[in-house]
Amino acid sequence: MHVVNNKIGVIVDSFRVGVREGLQRAKKVGAEGVQIYAVSGEMDPANLSEAQRKELKEYIASLGLEISALVGDLGGYGFQDKSVNVGKIEKSKRILDLAVELGTPVVTTHIGIVPEDTNSEIYQTMHDACEELASYATSMNAFFAIETGPEPSARLKQFLDGLGSKGVSVNFDPANMVMVTGDDPAQGVYNLKDYIVHTHAKDGLRLREVPAHYIYESLGYEAPANENNTFVPGEGEYFREVPLGEGGVNWTQYLNALKDIGYTGYLTIEREVGEDPEADISKAVQFLKQYRNV
Q1: Considering only CA atoms, which of 191, 194, 167, 163 is closest in space to residue 177?
Q2: Which element (helix H / strand E) includes 149?
Q3: Rounded to whole angstroms, how far apart are CA atoms 204 and 132?
Q4: What is the DSSP string of 209-228?
Q5: Contacts from 287-291 at CB under 8 Å and sequence distance 24+?
Q6: How many CA atoms lie within 13 A of 135 on its CB side?
Q7: pLDDT digit string (tens) for 31-66?
Q8: Rounded to an integer, what distance in angstroms lies between the CA atom of residue 161 and that of residue 179?
Q9: What are the DSSP E strand ranges found in the chain?
Q10: pTM attached to this predicted model
Q11: 207-252: per-residue pLDDT in tens?
């Protein structure tokens, strides 16, 4: 059973109680690191002075925690829409600056579904944005880490191979693969082995096979409307996020694959649903600890 020694993190926002309280709860459930959303509100880089950044870093350290990554997901169509990319790229860079100041080299993000057609305008738009982000991240010895899920791992690898540096890499989320593309997470790890810099520990079930744009917004695609004639991406019974160990992720195979490729970074628990996130996260920490070499 005992396979890995990776540190265990938790997304502070998953507790749904604000940053300071979330940090305390992360400590309480036994996490060693935390990931924090840094897109809006109190963690928006524009709202944090130099003194506040220093104080926050010291506070996190005083709890005995590290920051595994920041979340810099700006929503919408990711980087598919050329008309808004200048602003999004600029904001992404400021989030990366904040991450480095707080002591982590990783900002996770969604870039939008990578199209199959490498000659399409959307593919080129995403490529150009990611090339600029990759170059900036490399200059900072840091990474923007794309979350897996919207497209098969082989297509994501092809996209990353075309960027010319590893400044844009991968935040591996096994549940998104299981729930959306039906990809095998262990095989995905081997496909993306050169790029994985952070992971999310999440589990889920795929209930119906549907195109990715039913779940993730994609420029130029509309998914069918629901009964109110409005569509919310991901809404409906396409997939279900479940507690770790209750879904389609084969954790032994997946964690062994991470070990095989030499991944030594964080397994960061993400819990986006459920009535009692603290209980679910606490169980998830214990679930992952059972795989440790003891």
Answers
A1: 191
A2: none
A3: 33
A4: ---GGGTS--TT--PPP-TT
A5: 287/243, 287/244, 287/245, 287/251, 288/6, 288/8, 288/201, 288/244, 289/8, 289/30, 290/1, 290/2, 291/1, 291/2, 291/3, 291/4, 291/251, 291/252, 291/255
A6: 8
A7: 999 999 999 999 999 999 999 999 999 999 999 999
A8: 25
A9: 8-11, 33-37, 66-71, 106-109, 143-147, 168-172, 196-201, 203-206, 239-242, 267-269
A10: 0.94
A11: 888 888 888 888 988 776 666 655 566 656 788 899 999 999 999 9
3-class SS at 151? coil
Structure tokens at 289: 């600890």
> Looking at this protein, which amino acid is placed at residue 244?
L
The two structure tokens encoding residue 156: 């994501």
Write the single-letter amino acid at 268. T
**How far is Cα 176 from Cα 259, in angstroms, rounded to an integer?**
20
Tell me which residue of 214, 109, 212, 103 sits closest to 152, measured CA to CA. 212
